[in-house]
Each structure stands twice: as structure tokens, then as C-alpha cells.
């Protein structure tokens, strides 16, 4: 797989886009299902998708969560000479961290680990970093390094080196996380990678955008510095942020067959590449799943795989526009557990528009205008 490439528009060679291909690998859930370990894992490490957005989970650091369905990761490099890592590009957090050689947790032993002694550009910061998960945590410390993303080097980038990691992380394909939310969210005051890209003039526009392929393991991409028209069709709907911390927007309502089934009178939602599902309040999610014909079973909402072609669309009304999720987009099929919807229970009020939504809509994150842009994905 290509690690990264730079794409320049034919009309203006100065308008360069930094692109990192994303691989859609086997999720932790798929691996555990294959091994017959999913039920044991699910009970031991219950999924709380709102943990990363709930300050009560933070203990002197940034809250995160254990999402076993995350499947997309890209490759960056850290240090001189470069050491490569698979990371989740997460618009719902702000820190960059990877495993280090100082970590002896099981989760570190089957992932690539950064070795500061093998890099000529490493500088230790010394401050501690703690990222609290819904179950378990990552602990470590901060350092400075050259981080190469999309083929260009971000120098003196502060990042986390793990010394311990929560056990559930050993089943995740990605080594670490590269956060793309606002700097106010960053643990230990660490400047996010994209903020340094903007400060150093590495991007032509203060925008990054994400395309997630629905159909294959390859083809997904995160683009820094603009948008890639090859991955969307039709107009872009620009939505102002309602909170400049996460990529948070206002949703007007959610309908099925023209009937409001959730978010009546409006609700708040975060567009998050680091969450696999569409997540909402339990009563609203239960209502949506009921309307599409799903039944609750062991925390999942199950449907008959033979009914997908007849199941209704779910429509999110945002900024006066309709964003339609067809059944083929919101139903996930497993060789081991049949078909389940991609609508999951979350907190009391907040919604998360995760990968199930982003696969349908090319998502553009503008720091210049503090807006999210959505366009129909190709």
C-alpha cells in the first residue's frame, strides 16, 4: 500500500493536497468473532461510545473509548530515520500517540513501538500523558519528533509515547491515534498535528476531508489542505459548528418514511471519524431500530439479512437538506452473527455521526470557517 502521496491540481500547481490512503482492515470485533471470543470480550470490555465525549471519564487527561468496530487506519512515520505506524485519524480527539518500547502491556507487544534511541530528531518533553477509556487507560509521556503525514514532515510535533495500554487494545489493528479535533480538547496542552500543519504552511487551505469507501478494503483517504472532487458528487452543504471543540453541528430531525422518529425539535451531533456507528440517546435509537424492523439482542439490533432490500431509508435533516442513509449503508453483515444495524445506544442528548454516516457523505472539516461540509460520496 502506498504510504502517502501529494496531489497537485492541474490548474494551479501551488494548490497541493496531502493525501494519506486509509486501509479498511479487519476490525477487532471481526477478529474476535472469528476466534469465537466476541461474547467474552463484549462482556469484559463493554462499549461506551460516549466516553470520549464525557468529561466525567477524564482523569487528568483525555477520555477515549474502546470501539471494536473501527476498521480504517492510515500510515504515518515518526522520527529520523522514519518509524512507521498505523493510526486512526480521529476527528473526535486531539492527541497523537503511539506505543513505545517502554510499554510491556499485551496491547503493545503485538503492535509497532516507537524507539526514541533510534531517532536523531527525538526530544523528550517529560510531561505525563494519561488517556482514560471507558474500560482501562493508556498512560505514557510526551516527546517531540518529526512526524511525516501525507509525504511532508511536521517538525517538532509533540506526541505521546505509551508505557501501558488497556488490554482491549491488543485486538485493534491500528497502533495509535492521530487526533484531528480542536486544540482545546488536547490532553496535556499538546498541539495537534493539523494545527502545526497550518502554522507551518504545509497545507494550502485550513481544511481536511475524509472519504471512507463502502465497497473495498482500499480507496478510502484523508486529504489535508482541501477536498478531492474524485470522491464526491453534487453540491457541498456547509454547516456551521455549534461548538468549536469537537466537530459539532445541529441536526434538525431524523425521519423514516417521512415520519419524525428521533431528534424532534433539533439535537446536537458530532461528526466523528473515530466512531464506527451512528450513536444517539437510547430511546431515539430504539425508535429508529423499531421503525426499520430491528430487534434488540445482546446489545445489538438484529435484522433479517434477506430483508435489507425492503428496509426503509433513515433520513437526517441538517441545514435544510436531507442526508439519506439507505439500508445497504446502515446494515452490517457478519459471517458469524448475521445482520445488525449501525445505530447504537449512547448518552442522554448528544449524537455521534460516525463511519456509518461518513461512508455515505464525504466529510469536510474547515478550521478556516469553523464549519463541516457534507457531500454525497461516490
From TrEMBL:
Highest taxon listed in the record's lineage: Eukaryota
Domain Peptidase A1: from-to ranges: 72-375
GO biological process per UniProt: digestion; proteolysis
Organism for this UniProt entry: Thunnus orientalis (North Pacific bluefin tuna)
Organism lineage: Eukaryota, Metazoa, Chordata, Craniata, Vertebrata
Pfam families to which the protein is assigned, alphabetical: A1_Propeptide, Asp
Protein name: pepsin A
Keyword Calcium: no
Entry GO MF terms: aspartic-type endopeptidase activity
Gene name for this UniProt entry: PGA
PROSITE patterns: ASP_PROTEASE, PEPTIDASE_A1
Active site: 90, 272
Function as written in the Swiss-Prot or TrEMBL entry: Shows particularly broad specificity; although bonds involving phenylalanine and leucine are preferred, many others are also cleaved to some extent.
Signal peptide start and end residues: 1-16
EC number(s) from the headed UniProt entry: 3.4.23.1
